[in-house]
Amino acid sequence: MVLIGAGQGGSLGPLTASGIAGVAPEDAGLASGRVNVAHQLGGSLGLFVTVFAAAGAGTVDPLDLLAHRAATSLTVGTAMLAVVALVIVLIVPSRKASTDSSRPASRAGLATPASSRQAASVA
Fold first, then answer.
1. Is residue 73 assigned to a domain?
2. Domains in the chain: how many in total?
3. Res 61: pLDDT
4. In this model, does residue 110 exceed pLDDT 70?
5. Is residue 104 included in any domain, yes or no?
6. What secondary structure does DSSP assign to 64-93, as a single string?
7. What is the domain extent for residue 63?
8. By the 8 A CB rule, do 32 and 16 touch?
9. How many Å apart are CA 33 and CA 23, to the nearest integer?
């Protein structure tokens, strides 16, 4: 339980923060909801895949079956983490660079809502 708590505490906060980074303030609720759905679906899908792999880790002596299934689950979990890390390394940085250049100044974080209101009241 300590490992689960440390893993979730070290990953869910930064993942949520990066999921809503650069989003316009009026869209922050929608972005947060999407990030939370991704957390829930990812956890459910990961649990399904590891349990399915462990259940199919087949015909071993009954005394060694638990250890064999646990090893299979950990191997599959490690493979899933490697795939996710590869996707993050290859896709996320290039996507961020392309969206920053295509957004208007207020969406790119150059104008804050307060400075926009001040400019509107002056004009």
1. yes
2. 1
3. 77
4. no
5. no
6. THHHHHHHHHHHHHHHHHHHHHHHHHHHHH
7. 2-19+26-99
8. yes
9. 13
The Cα 76–Cα 38 span in angstroms is: 20
Whose tokens are 């250049």? That residue is 101
Eight-class DSSP state of 110: S
Query: In this structure, is residue 76 part of a structural domain?
Result: yes
| Alpha-carbon distances, residue 7 vs 11, 12, 29, 110 (angstroms) | 6, 8, 25, 34
Token pair of 96, please? 């961020």
Task: Answer whether 57's CB lies under 8 Å from 76's CB.
Answer: no
State whether residue 27 is helix, strand or coil: helix
Would you state the structure tokens that stand for residue 68, as one six-digit string?
A: 């064999």
Answer yes or no: is 85 within a domain: yes
The distance in angstroms from the start CA to the end CA of the chain is 58
**Lookup result for tokens 């993942």:** 15
* Claim: this prediction has a pTM higher than 0.90: no
- Tens digits of per-residue pLDDT, 21-74? 888 989 888 988 888 898 888 888 888 888 888 777 766 677 778 788 888 888
